[in-house]
Write a structure and sequence with these properties.
Blueprint (H helix, E strand, L loop, with lengths): L2 H11 L4 E5 L5 H9 L4 E4 L3 H15 L3 E6 H7 L1 H9 L4 E7 L2 H4 L9 H6 L4 E4 L6 H12 L6 E7 H5 L24 H10 L4 E5 L6 H14 L2 E4 L6 E3 L13 H8 L4 E5 L23 E6 L5 H12 L24 H11 L4 E6 L7 H5 L5 E5 L8 H11 L5 E6 H4 L5 H8 L3 E7 L4 H9 L7 H6 L9 H7 L3 E5 L2 H12 L5 E6 L1
Parallel strand pairs: 1-2, 1-3, 3-4, 4-6, 5-6, 7-8, 7-10, 10-11, 12-13, 12-14, 14-15, 15-17, 16-17
Antiparallel strand pairs: 9-13
Helix pairs in contact: 1-2, 1-8, 3-5, 3-16, 11-13, 14-22
Keywords: Thiamine pyrophosphate
Protein name: Acetolactate synthase large subunit
Organism: Variovorax rhizosphaerae
Length: 518
């Protein structure tokens, strides 16, 4: 058994049984090992950003890490944008990166690079395995790091000579490395209880990370019912369980002015696996922190804690355990929308058609800013956003989510500009026959950047600025692009046609792309 085979066995023994791949010459012994050894599902992506984004989506739904297989430093570098999103989402990922044989590194061949430096920019743990005798132990440690709480990015560099060298005797590997269990540290618990009992200041419960699962949000709703506190979610989150029968949790607005208008009225913010809200960017003459200067921040739980335990203890201390949660979304029929495609008609159509237990991956950017309220009472579903803001998130993440949850429909909401960063994910959807519906919003512009040009005070766009923010000459033909990747496509231009297209897609196995002309 060689080093590559040892590492594959170690991954499988550690419950890492999906590998998103884009290999090269240095990884061929690992590819051969994956071919010979049963137990690993291998999924090819045509660009490394698809590979890393799929690993992010997989973790968010499966709750355990997948592996990636990347080719040397340049291949890893191609995947860094979605590793950034995965890191901000606190997703666990085990990257396997091939490298030249150790002796060959001395020759400074064209693909030689400082892999450790590249990996270190987006990884919590990096290790280059120096010898075949350490492969199993290094693999086990990579898995342990990825399974930490919160999830982490681990990168294991496998030199080609280590991969092909025979192991005299394979060391035993750990079985089924589980995700780390969290408890609950006290933090500001007593101060929170005292304040919410005795000091009726306007209070916000701000939820993030694992606190946005249904079990935790229901408890937050009980606290809100008993105390009058308001409950909100961070604007970006890895996974929010929402829809009919679950708590309605509006997000803090993205734009700085409405965010400040909302947050300035709170005198106290209780952080539940969340961070103090700040502006996404710096703007001239506007603060980076969005809250009132006198606002008091109290921490109930951090991302290392179990928010469900923390909220349950808070409910008990406040006598809120028997309170009916405030703000549960009611189920009911949604009236079909009609007319032109706008944020409102699209949101209403999504709400009316979304299947129960669907997974929505949201990179709708400007078109989707109004979807929150419009879809709050849709059938129960999970909503995923791009936590790091790096463009090209939705399509790869939809791949990983679909592989993590076979039988659940995935709806990817994508802008035409953002989609071009990772459209190769469509090919993987077709090849794996994934139940993904891709809804592309075609406005032929980087619309958010047009807004930002004004928001930062840079003035009205002239001809050259407009040209840099427009997607025309030629127009992108998403239906043709999709068909070229093997995914059936349909073009719609009104709400009635969108309703029909969504319903047909949900009723059909495999992927579909809907090109919505705005």
């Amino acid at each position: 058994m060689n080093g590559a085979e040892t590492l594959v066995h170690t991954l499988i023994d550690g419950n890492v049984d999906v590998c998103f791949t884009n290999p090269g010459t240095s990884e061929m012994h690992f590819v051969a090992a994956l071919d010979r050894i049963e137990g690993m599902r291998c999924v090819l992506g045509l660009h490394e950003t698809v590979v890393t984004g799929a690993a992010d989506g997989y973790y968010r739904i499966a709750g355990k890490p997948a592996a990636t297989l990347l080719h040397l430093g340049p291949g890893l570098a191609n995947g860094l944008a979605n590793l950034h999103n995965a890191r901000k989402a606190r997703s666990g990922v085990v990257n396997i990166v091939g490298d030249h044989a150790v002796e060959h590194l001395k020759l400074d061949a064209p693909l030689t690079s400082d892999i450790d430096a590249i990996a270190g920019s987006m990884s919590h743990w990096v290790r280059s395995t120096p010898s075949v005798n350490e492969v199993a132990a290094d693999g086990e440690e990579a898995i342990r790091q990825a399974n930490a709480r919160p999830g982490q990015i681990s990168t294991l560099v496998l030199p080609a000579n280590v991969a092909w060298t025979e192991v005299p005797e394979r060391k035993g590997s750990s079985k089924d490395a589980p995700a780390a269990k969290a408890g609950h540290a006290p933090h500001d618990f007593d101060r929170i209880v005292n304040a919410m009992r005795n000091d009726p200041q306007p209070t916000l419960l701000l939820l993030g990370d694992q606190a946005l699962r249904a079990a935790s949000t229901e408890l937050a709703g009980r606290v809100a019912a008993a105390t009058g506190a308001e409950v909100r979610a961070e604007f970006y989150f890895a996974r929010l369980e929402r829809g009919a029968g679950r708590l309605v949790i509006p997000r803090i607005p993205y734009a700085i002015d409405p965010a400040m208008a909302l947050l300035q009225r709170f005198k106290r913010i209780v952080l539940v696996n969340a961070k103090a809200p700040v502006a996404f960017f710096a703007y001239p003459d506007k603060p980076g922190r969005l809250t009132a200067p006198e606002c008091e921040f109290l921490t109930l739980s951090t991302v290392e804690d179990d928010p469900c335990l923390a909220l349950a203890e808070l409910c008990e201390a406040l006598g809120a355990g028997g309170a009916a949660p405030a703000g549960i979304a009611l189920s009911g029929a949604h009236e079909p929308a009609s007319g032109a495609l706008t944020s409102e008609t699209i949101g209403r159509t999504i709400a009316a058609t979304l299947p129960e237990n669907a997974i929505v991956v949201d990179e709708a950017v400007t078109t989707g800013w109004g979807f929150d309220g419009l879809t709050a009472s849709a059938a129960p579903h999970d909503w995923l956003t791009g936590c790091g803001g790096s463009i090209g998130f939705a399509l790869p993440t939809a791949v990983g989510a679909a592989i993590a949850a076979p039988g659940r429909r995935v709806l990817a909401l994508e802008g035409d500009g953002s989609g071009m960063y990772s459209l190769q994910a469509l090919w993987t959807m077709a090849r794996e026959n994934l139940d993904v519906t891709v809804l592309i919003f075609v406005n032929r512009a980087y619309s958010i950047l047009r807004r930002e040009l004004a928001a930062v005070g840079a003035g009205a766009p002239g001809a050259r600025a407009t040209d840099m923010l427009s997607l025309d000459r030629p127009d992108l033909d998403w239906s043709s692009l999709s068909k070229g990747m093997g995914v059936t496509a349909v073009r719609v231009s009104d709400a009635e046609a969108l309703h029909v297209a969504l319903a047909r897609s949900y009723a059909t196995s495999g992927p579909t792309l809907i090109e919505a002309i705005l």
